[in-house]
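Input (structure):
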């Protein structure tokens, strides 16, 4: 079987930055529903199309095809008293609405002063060119239920 629309693809992968620094490596293979279901970066999905088990890809992802460009307007300083006095630390994350949007974003606390808390709604890899290397570990037809739901089960 080859990777094609409506197949469940299982792959191991490594994600590196443009300098070759390893950012993430799959401890266990991941599975996604192939064919435009948003389970993996579209550029990677295109590269996997037609591969058989054991096939490999190496895809360079520019920011627009990965986590987007870094947006300065997603960084903001909020009044310190809008946060709990105890327990907030740099690196903590929380979900909140973005200004002018109905969408919730994950914000990361990047700085804490006596007067303010600086939060950043950008993905940590926003603005970066990335290298995705993957190996197809398995391919199977998707079940009817997976196709209806648009994602892999089990």
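Output (sequence):
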């Amino acid at each position: 079987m080859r990777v094609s629309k409506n197949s469940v693809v299982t792959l191991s992968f490594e994600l590196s930055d443009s300098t070759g620094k390893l950012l993430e490596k799959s401890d266990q293979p991941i599975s996604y529903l192939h064919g435009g279901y948003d389970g993996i970066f579209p550029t990677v999905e295109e590269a996997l199309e037609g591969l058989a088990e054991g096939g490999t890809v190496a895809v360079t992802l520019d920011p627009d095809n990965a986590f987007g460009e870094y947006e300065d307007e997603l960084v903001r300083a909020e009044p310190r008293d809008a946060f709990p006095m105890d327990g907030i630390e740099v690196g903590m994350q929380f979900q909140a609405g973005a200004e002018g949007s109905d969408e919730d974003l994950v914000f990361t606390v990047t700085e804490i002063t006596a007067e303010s808390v600086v939060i950043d709604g950008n993905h940590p890899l926003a603005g970066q060119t990335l290298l995705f290397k993957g190996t197809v570990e398995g391919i199977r037809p998707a079940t009817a239920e997976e196709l209806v739901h648009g994602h892999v089960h089990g």
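Notes: DSSP finds two helices and nine strands in the chain. The chain has a mean pLDDT of 93.
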